[in-house]
Amino acid sequence: MRIAAIETTRRGENTMHTRKAGSALMLAILGIAAFLATATPLGAADPALIAAAKKEGEVVWYTTQIVSQLVRPVTAAFEKKYPGIKVRSTRANASETAVKILNEAKAGRLQADIFDGTTTVVPLKAEGHVLQWLPDAAKDYPAEVKDPQGYWIANNLFVITPGFNTSLIPRGKEPRTLHDLLNPALRGTMAWNGFPTSSGAGGFIGTVLTEMGQEKGTAFLRELGKQKIANLRGSAREVLDQVIAGEYSLALQIFNHHTVISAKKGAPVDWIPMEPATVTLSTVSVLAKAPHLNAAKLLMDFIISREGQEVFAKAYYIPAHPAVPAAVPTLKPAEGKFRAHFFTPEATDDKMPKWNDVFNEFFR
Question: Helix crossing, 293-304 with 47-56: angle to 10°?
């Protein structure tokens, strides 16, 4: 009888444990279901931010990007994803954009909400006009393409390399190293943007000095100065166009993705993965006193999201997001297996005057 009673008790205990376990499992399932029903989907913006942005109704973007190639596709994708928020944009170069925002802020009539550019952020940050904020998606980006203080993050990379006319220099005969540029056969056939910019002589000089050091770099640049490189007064794109037209055989410091765009249209041009390449960051930031602060945050969040970065890739820009390949993947240093030096806006702004001094000494 006692044995029977003990067995009965054990069966009761097992039943109770089973019921408790079942109840705990059911509660866990219900909890997960409730979380999934209310949680923001992975990669999506915060619903409260979206609602606040829609109340503002618009966002003003001061951009340095090409309107037809990139700004319009990004605008269309953003407005489709977030109906009711209108993007208004205006384009200028990095320096002009910074001056315009500074003047607006000084007059107390700030129009811009968000801006981009390679060096735009530096003077604006110094004057306290940039919001110290990055979207959650910034955590997916490597340290070399975002500000450790949280004022900016790269929206695309400008990978700057030589480009050459394939009708004038057959493939396989192009210079592959920096020292190949000293070949006497190239004297008088090369050109670059003669301005003190990353995509011009200044950026090339900075990359050489960073790579070789001051003494060896200066010695190399002194020899390169004897090659009679043409100092053109135009953008890197315009320099490349002159190479395509056959005015010069080789362009230094051009955007490698521009050669892909032109070659796709039938132009006799290609780029050279000469090491080290120069990588300049086009960065995006929100203004601290943006009239449409929430809409600006939402646009910035979209621009650096995987979805936004795929728009960049389709436009043949090089996405900064490490998980989004370029339209031609080998345009990126990692995928193309070539070395590059990355220059932040602050580093470029700080060192460019010294690089320009070297230019004036050897290349004027």
Answer: 120
Claim to verify: residue 198 and residue 146 sit in the same structural domain: no
Domain span including residue 183:
159-279+346-362
Residue 87 DSSP symbol: E
Pairing of strands 153-165, 277-286: antiparallel
Average pLDDT, the chain: 90
Burial class (CB in 10 A: 0-12, 13-18, 19+), 16: exposed
The SS3 call for residue 156 is strand
Tokens 């002009």, located at residue: 96
Instruction: Give the single-character DSSP code of 11.
Output: H
Q: Is residue 10 one of the residues assigned to a domain?
A: no
Does residue 302 have a pLDDT over 90?
yes
User: Containing H/E element for 236?
Assistant: helix 236-244
Where do the H-state alpha helices sit in 39-151? 47-56, 72-81, 94-107, 121-126
Say yes or no to pLDDT of 34 above 60: no
Identify the H or E element spanning 263. helix 256-264
- Cα–Cα distances in angstroms (integers) from residue 75 to residues 101, 311, 348, in the given order: 21, 10, 29
CB 284 within 8 Å of CB 155: yes
Alpha-carbon distance 66 to 313, whole Å? 14
Q: Is 215 inside any structural domain?
A: yes
Provide the residue count of the chain. Answer: 364
Q: What is the pLDDT of residues 228-280, one digit of tens each?
A: 999 999 889 999 999 999 999 999 999 999 999 999 999 999 999 999 999 99
**Do residue 285 and residue 271 come from a single domain?**
no
Helix (H) or strand (E) holding 27: helix 2-38
Q: What is the pLDDT of residues 111-142, one digit of tens each?
A: 999 999 999 999 999 999 999 999 999 999 99
Residue 272, helix vs strand vs coil: coil
Cβ–Cβ < 8 Å for 85, 298 = yes
The two structure tokens encoding residue 300: 């910035």
> 15: how many CB neighbours lie within 10 A of its CB?
10
- The per-residue pLDDT for 234 is 87
Burial of 86 (0-12, 13-18, 19+ CB in 10 A): middle
